[in-house]
Design a protein that fits this description.
Layout: H1 5-21, H2 25-31, E1 37-42, H3 49-53, E2 60-65, H4 75-87, E3 92-98, H5 102-107, H6 116-119, H7 121-129, H8 131-135, H9 140-160, H10 163-170, E4 176-182, E5 189-191
């Protein structure tokens, strides 16, 4: 037995279970991809996007990276957002962090880790910005969890500030950006109530006018 045999066996059982429930499921899935949601989450193996929200394959378009960061220089993430918004016409972008995030925890320490130090720099900046507030919390775990929430809130803003999302709003396309967080200890997905659904909700310095006609 090879290292992957168990995974192939698991897949065969999973596919059979799906077909037992809906014999035409995979045929329908192959015909089109029409998700209403884009999930931007952490790469952590304990945070399975579809399972958390009870959606089947095809219902959730997913992008994951360490600590669910949205950078305006990250062409990978921006390409996913553009495809989701412009082509798939998703109605909701779900920026989802999780409590106890290792990337967030690392950004609060002075250990040098390598290439990822550059990736986590914006969270380190966020930690410094909120250091006084975080210092009032009694334990490291509480400080980490609060920074996980603050990181999600910041990434919701970063998504909302992209020209991709703002152009969708200029077109009148229904689109909302939500901030959520997942508790690994209890399995619950929590709404942080920072939803942005229009340009009017953005600070004026981040609102961009529509592209001028060529």
């Amino acid at each position: 037995m090879t290292d992957l045999d168990q995974l192939f066996d698991n897949n065969a059982r999973w596919a059979e279970a799906i077909k037992q429930e809906d014999p035409a499921f995979f045929e329908k899935l192959a015909m089109q991809q029409v998700p209403e949601y884009l999930w931007i989450g952490c790469s952590d193996a304990r945070v399975p996007a579809n399972e958390i929200v009870g959606l089947l394959p095809g219902d959730l378009f997913v992008h994951r990276n360490v600590a669910n960061v949205v950078l305006h220089t990250d062409l990978n993430c921006l390409s996913v957002i553009q495809y989701a918004v412009d082509v798939l016409k998703v109605k909701h972008i779900l920026v989802t962090g999780h409590y106890g995030c290792g990337g967030v925890r690392a950004s609060m320490r002075d250990d040098q880790l390598g290439l990822i130090d550059g990736w986590l720099r914006t969270i380190r900046d966020l930690y410094y910005e909120h250091r006084a507030h975080l210092a009032t919390l009694p334990s490291e775990e509480e400080r980490v969890d609060r920074l996980c929430e603050l990181n999600v809130i910041q990434q919701v803003a970063n998504v909302s500030h992209t020209t991709i999302v703002q152009n969708a709003w200029h077109r009148g396309q229904p689109l909302s950006v939500h901030g959520c967080i997942y508790g690994i200890k209890d399995g619950l997905w929590k709404n942080l109530n920072v939803t942005v659904s229009s340009l009017d909700q953005l600070p004026s310095q981040y609102r961009l006018r529509p592209l001028a006609p060529v």
